[in-house]
Design goal:
mainly beta, 25 strands
Length: about 375
């Protein structure tokens, strides 16, 4: 087995948050986490993920995302993604347990509870059943708070904007909406769902309900992540020009309204897909990791192995060695693997000048 990390990489022309055009090199390596906590490089380079990957090859509309594409030229923070499950200690059944992620000084705690349902009692209102025992529980957004309420309104179902895949979301307090309603398994210990706070009451008040708690990928079209989408900063002048030109195709009485409705500028936080609290200021890559409640044998502990690659880029003016940052850390607790995705980017004249470049050399190697 190799002792030197091996990297797969790709060059992505893009722009940065300051609106400057950049050539971004994204490089990925994988390690095996040994039983004694050592991170051992894989003997073959791991492929970059070209597109978002969903659990079990599922439908993106009804299945949580396992890992997102690695083809992201610029993340403003490091994403920490955990793919795994909660495990009862020594394989024993539990009805409730704690799970936590600690990476350096950053920590996230969860409470995982066995399957429960809600029942409607005419005089008491919503009542939660006792949790069923479990030995393992997938840490996926389908088991966090959220979901679709298909019975509160006759016109159409409504989904929880922060996580339409989850469970427990209900608007109206009625027998048909409450009886048999599946309740979330994964919660923030500081914001546990209660019978008194179960029903939203009015859809306009959805924002007072809990943030879904998990350690995986938070969906691109879920709120608030979707609110960060928009026009890339470098493309805003072109967008405004096209928007103004298109006004000529709009009926005269609607031109002013059309001009006032413009796409916002993209906030680069959109590219960070980690769960709340796990998109953090760039890690150095040498932080200690402790995962509790994700292995029946006890905590999983190791130290990120560092190993940032040396990346050099030359598009004509000479070889450059731009700053390298750690964009993504993916830990799979069952497979005991660690993926680290690094990024380095240098400014260049822009896409209209690509055909004029005299050379385009990229060197990525272990440092």
């Amino acid at each position: 087995m190799s002792t030197t990390p091996l990297f797969s990489h790709i060059l992505l022309p893009a722009s940065n948050p300051q609106g400057k055009y950049v050539l971004s090199v994204v490089a990925k390596t994988r390690y095996r986490i040994s039983p004694d906590g050592k991170c051992v490089p894989e003997s073959e380079p791991v492929k970059l993920e070209p597109a978002d990957k969903f659990f079990d090859g599922g439908d993106p509309l009804i299945t949580a995302c396992e890992v997102e594409s690695d083809f992201i030229p610029w993340k403003p923070q490091t994403d920490i993604i955990i793919v795994g499950k909660a495990c009862g200690p020594r394989g024993k059944e539990v009805i409730r347990m704690g799970v936590s992620v600690q990476v350096g000084s950053y920590r996230k705690n969860l409470v995982v509870t066995g399957d429960r349902q809600c029942q409607h009692k005419p005089l008491a209102g919503p009542v939660f059943s006792n949790p069923k025992p479990f030995t393992e529980m997938p840490l996926r957004y389908e088991r966090a708070y959220g979901g679709m309420d298909i019975l509160s309104f006759s016109e159409a179902p409504v989904g929880y904007p922060r996580n339409p895949l989850g469970r427990g979301f209900v608007v109206k307090k009625k027998k048909e909406t409450l009886d048999g309603l599946a309740l979330p398994n994964i919660e923030d210990p500081n914001f546990l769902l209660t019978p008194e706070g179960l029903c939203v009451g009015e859809m306009k008040d959805w924002h007072r309900m809990p943030m879904p708690a998990c350690v995986g990928v938070f969906g691109k079209i879920w709120y608030p992540r979707c609110s960060f989408a928009g026009v890339m900063p470098a493309d805003m002048p072109l967008y405004e020009q096209l928007h103004e030109m298109s006004a000529g195709l709009v009926p005269p009485d609607q031109v002013e309204k059309y001009k006032s409705l413009k796409m916002p500028m993209l906030d680069f936080k959109f590219f960070n897909g980690a769960s709340s609290g796990l998109a953090v200021p760039y890690l150095k890559g040498n932080e200690k990791v402790r995962l509790e409640g994700m292995d029946a044998a006890g905590p999983i502990e190791f130290t990120l192995p560092g190993g940032a690659p040396a990346i050099r880029i030359d598009y004509g003016p000479g070889m450059q060695t731009p700053e390298i940052v750690l964009q993504t850390v993916v830990i799979r607790t069952v497979e005991r693997t660690l993926d680290m995705v690094w990024r380095s980017a240098c400014e260049y004249p822009g896409p209209t000048e690509l055909e004029k470049l005299t050379k385009l050399d990229v060197i990525v190697e272990a440092s």
